[in-house]
Amino acid sequence: MAYYLFHDDPDYVQNYIDKNPDLASMHLSVDGENLICKQGEVKGPLASVVKTIIAIEFANQVVEGKIDPDEQIPLVELEKFYLVNTDGGAHPNWLKEMKDGDQIKNDAVSLQEVAKGMIMFSSNTNTDFLLDKLGPESINHVIESLGLENHAPVYPLVSSLLVSTYLNEDKKSSTSQLLDRLQSLSLEDYRELSWGIHHLLKHRKADFFNGSVSIPIDLQKIWSDRLLMQR
C-alpha cells in the first residue's frame, strides 16, 4: 500500500480501501495516539512488508557499529538465496542497476547497496541474506520494540517457497497430496522447516532441487498466506 501514497489522486488509498475492504488495512499512530485504525488487528499476509522491519534493524546495527555498510558482499553469497523466475525479475533488475551504476567491484557490492536493493527492488534474495546477516533474533526484537504484539516471528522468504519442493524430494507426491501435507503443518513447524532449508542453501547442501523450481499456484498461495503479519 505504501506505493499508492505517491499516486496523483489524494483519495486513491481511501478509494482502494472502500472498494476492497477485505484486502486492505491501515493503522496510523502519532506520538502514541491512534488516529486511524481500519482493520488494523485483522490477520493478513505480511509478504514484502517484512522488508521494512529488516531495514529498521539494518539501520540500528549501522548506528550501533555492529555492521559496516561499506562491507563488500560477494555476489556469490547472495546467489545462494536466488531462485530463478520466482521474484518477478526483482533481483536481476537490481543486479543490472548495480552493473549500470558501476557499483560492482571485484564481483562484490556494498552491504548498503544490498539493503537498498531489498527495499527499492524488493529483492527476496537480498532479504534472506540480510535476515541471516543481521540475525533473526535481532529482527524479532525490533518487532517487539515497535509494539507489534501480534506479529509472528520472521522467517526466510526464499526458503519457505521451497518447502513444498523439499517435501516432494522423491517427486512422487501429487499437488493435492502436497497441498494436504502443507496445510497439516503448524506455522511453527513450517517456520522451522523454512529455516532448515535456509541453512541448506547457505551451505550449498540443498541437493533436493536442481536450482530451478516450478510451483503450482495452489502451493504458492499457501506460501503467500503463511507470510502473516498477525498470528
Question: How much helix is in the residues?
Answer: 40-55%
State the low-pLDDT regions, or none.
Answer: 1-5
Largest sheet: 2 strands, antiparallel
Q: What is the strand arrangement across the widest sheet?
A: 1-2
Radius of gyration: 19 Å
Strand tally: 4
Helix/strand order, N-terminal first: HEEHEHHEHHHHHHHH
**First-residue to last-residue Cα separation:** 20 Å
Q: Overall pLDDT, averaged? A: 86
Number of helices: 12
Determine the strand fraction and express it as a percent band: 5-15%
Shape: globular
Structural class: mainly alpha
Compact description:
By secondary structure, the chain is mainly alpha-helical.
Tell me what the structure shows.
The protein is mainly alpha-helical and 231 residues long. Among the domains are: 1-42, no CATH class; 47-136, no CATH class. Helices cover 49% and strands 7% of the residues. It has 12 helices and 4 strands, in the order αββαβααβαααααααα. The chain has a two-stranded antiparallel ribbon. A hairpin with a 2-residue loop joins strand 1 and strand 2. The radius of gyration is 19 Å and the shape is globular.
